[in-house]
Each structure stands twice: as C-alpha cells, then as structure tokens.
Amino acid sequence: MALNADVSFTWVGHGTWKARSAKGKEVLIDPWVMNNPIAPDMLKTVDRCDLMLITHGHFDHIHDGVEIARRTKPTIVTNHEIGVWLGSKGIDGEKIIGSNKGGTVEAEGISVTLVHAEHTCGITDNGGIVYGGEACGLVIEFENGFTVYFAGDTDVFGDMALIAELSKFDVAFLPIGGFYTMGPERAAKAAQLLGVKTVVPMHFGTFPILSGTPSQLQELVGNKVKVLDIKPGDNV
Q1: 174, 147 in Cβ contact below 8 A?
Q2: Which end of the chain is more exposed for a tag (fewer CB within 10 A), N or C?
Q3: What is the DSSP secondary-structure string of 124-177?
Q4: Ordered DSSP codes for 47-111
Q5: What's the rounded Cα separation, in Å, for the pair 68 and 47?
Q6: pLDDT score of 129
Q7: What is the pLDDT of residue 1?
Q8: Phi/psi of residue 162, each to 5°?
Q9: Cβ atoms of 83 and 76 closer than 8 Å
C-alpha cells in the first residue's frame, strides 16, 4: 500500500526504516541494521545512505549508525548530545546536524523537525551509559511536500495534538509493542490526538515482551483509521 506515490518506506524491523525520498534520496531512520535480529538479510547491507535520522540513543536505534555513517558518509540529523557523541566516534562533524526540540533542519532537500517524545535516551558506551540528551520524535517533510510524523519510541502524551496542529500530516509511524513504549491501547489514543487517517505500526514483535500487534490497534481505532499490517521487509 503506497502512502505517497513518490515516497516509499521499507521496514527494516523494530524501529528502523529505510525511505526513498521524492527526489531519490536514501534515508535511514534509527539505524539498527546489521545486528537487528528481525531484519531481512537483503536489508542488512547499506551501500548508500544520503540522510540518517536518529530519534534517540538506545542501542536498538543507534547501534549500527557509526559503522554505516563511516562507510556511506550521510548527513546526520539528531539531537545535540547524540551529535557530539557521534563526533567523538570519528564521524565528520561537518556532516552532523545536532538540533533540538522545536528546531527545523533542511538536509538533502528534506525538512526535519525534532519534536517531543516521552522516553529516555542513555547511550550504551564502553559498558556504561552516557547522557544522550532527550528522546525526540520527527516530523519529516519530503521534497514534494508529503509529510509524516515519526514518533520514535514514546508513550502517548497530550501535546501530540499540538504537534499535529503545527505540522499537517496524514500518516503517523507509532510504536505499539508495549513495555518500553506505548502498547495498542495507548497508541489508539495517540492516533485520536494526532487525527491521522493512516497509522504505520512499529517497535513490535522483535522480542516476545513487545507483544502489541497491528490487529489489536486496528480493532481499537475502528474503521476511521487504517492500521497497516506489516512485517520486516515490507514496503509502504
């Protein structure tokens, strides 16, 4: 099911997505790729990445980002603290845009706004946890104006309605697995606050504890919202 004829998303698995922009840019969101246990083998090699977007610093969203960035040299948009951390790992600082919540960045012709998320953001480094700023969501506007809300890891929060009011979008990528993020019941409330017609679920099924399913969310939201029933490797 195409969300937009000129923009496509491929679910690598968990919270990780590859997107092809309206003008052919290769975008990688929350890069947990080679070590992602549910990523299809065909997606575990990233030969090209023009733009890397990182919502927060947990291993299951950033673990493979350094290696991929060294090889493909993308522009990277993330929060300030993660940007500094990436620089400390030898990533070219000229390619890192460390923004923060409320800031809008133009990168590779794509507009990215960092918005609030209810989550934590410690980075696992040398056996310890280092401060990674605060977790963010993303509002991504592609070159043709097509815009999506990518929630990252989050619980539902009332200001999702404000994000929707300030940034017009028809599609929301929402975590539904539960335990580390909201599950289907709370994601249903998120869909209501966002006022979207289409929800793309993510962050479910990777491990048994992430037990929420797209069908559970679909039942809760009824026929007003289309919840895509996806598996790793699917294009939407």
Answers
A1: no
A2: N
A3: EETTEEE-----EEEEEE-TTS-EEEE--S----TTHHHHHHHS--SEEEEE-S
A4: ---SEEE-----HHHHTTHHHHHHHH--EEEEEHHHHHHHHHTT--GGGEEEE-TT-EEEETTEE
A5: 8
A6: 97
A7: 40
A8: -70, -40
A9: yes
Domains and CATH numbers, the chain: 8-173 (3.60.15.10)
pTM: 0.98
What angle, rounded to 10 degrees, do the helices at 80-88 and 65-72 form?
A: 70
Beta pairing partners, 114: 138
Give the model's pLDDT for residue 5.
86
Per DSSP, the three-state class of 233 is coil
- CB count, 10 Å around CB of 26? 18
CB neighbours of 76 closer than 8 A, spacing ≥ 6?
Answer: 51, 52, 53, 54, 65, 69, 83, 86, 91, 95, 96, 97
Per-run averaged pLDDT (10 residues), the chain, 236 residues: 81 98 98 98 97 98 97 98 98 97 98 98 96 98 97 98 96 98 98 98 98 98 97 97
The secondary element (H helix, E strand) that includes residue 14 is: none
Q: Do residues 142 and 22 touch, judged by C-beta distance below 8 A?
A: yes
Q: Which amino acid is at 183?
A: G
